[in-house]
């Protein structure tokens, strides 16, 4: 019953790896989805965000106005820390609940936590394995421009706002090179599955 953390910088190919592991039968727990779930309309987290950052971070339909919140925290370390102090504990509790549910349903499950902010928030958790999706910053910037429609400057700003690739690699038990073809990325992921799959 391994619990695996899968991380990587923006546009590093993490989703490709997660999808391949899911095809093999891994249970994927998506940190980004949990963030959205714990910030759902009517949630305690959303109430805390409004109290901390102002009612304008709540949209007319009662959902989180991510653009308004982003404008308040982007580039401001103090405000970002304040945001993280509200969101991270809720995400930690909900992810632990989902891990436990997966193992309760199948004691031999391979549970993969797809988590962008591992280095920033969850590095010291008791993972059985840390897997890093890795591609050079120039390639990831190009992917952001070509696949997500960002400008070159926007792409560079996104990359610059994240921890360094060296910091991620320093935590890795397994590094999957995603700068190669899709087939080779999948082959590396298949090799990882052979290592962790239930016997």
UniProtKB/TrEMBL annotation:
GO terms for molecular function: kinase activity. Catalyzes the phosphorylation of the 3'-hydroxyl group of dephosphocoenzyme A to form coenzyme A. Belongs to the CoaE family. Pfam families: CoaE. Keywords: ATP-binding, Coenzyme A biosynthesis, Cytoplasm, Kinase, Nucleotide-binding, Transferase. InterPro entries: Depp_CoAkinase (IPR001977), P-loop_NTPase (IPR027417). It catalyses: 3'-dephospho-CoA + ATP = ADP + CoA + H(+). ATP binds at residues 11-16. It is found in: Cytoplasm. Pathway: Cofactor biosynthesis; coenzyme A biosynthesis; CoA from (R)-pantothenate: step 5/5. Its EC number is 2.7.1.24. This is Dephospho-CoA kinase. The gene is coaE.
């Amino acid at each position: 019953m391994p619990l695996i953390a899968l991380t990587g910088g923006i546009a590093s190919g993490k989703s490709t790896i997660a999808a391949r592991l899911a095809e093999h039968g891994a249970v994927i727990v998506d940190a980004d989805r949990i963030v959205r779930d714990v910030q759902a309309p009517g949630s305690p987290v959303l109430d805390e965000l409004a109290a901390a950052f102002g009612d304008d971070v709540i949209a007319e339909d009662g959902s989180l106005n991510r653009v308004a919140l982003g404008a308040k925290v982007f580039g401001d370390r103090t405000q970002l820390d304040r945001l993280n102090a509200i969101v991270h504990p809720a995400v930690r509790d909900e992810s632990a609940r989902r891990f436990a549910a997966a193992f309760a349903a199948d004691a031999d499950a391979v549970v993969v936590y797809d988590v962008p902010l591992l280095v920033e928030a969850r590095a010291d958790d008791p993972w059985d394995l840390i897997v890093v999706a890795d591609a050079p910053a120039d390639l990831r910037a190009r992917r952001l421009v070509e696949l997500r429609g960002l400008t070159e400057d926007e792409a560079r700003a996104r990359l610059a706002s994240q921890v360094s690739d060296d910091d991620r690699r320093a935590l890795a038990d397994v590094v999957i090179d995603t700068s190669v073809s899709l087939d080779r990325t999948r082959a590396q992921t298949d090799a990882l599955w052979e290592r962790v799959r239930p016997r």
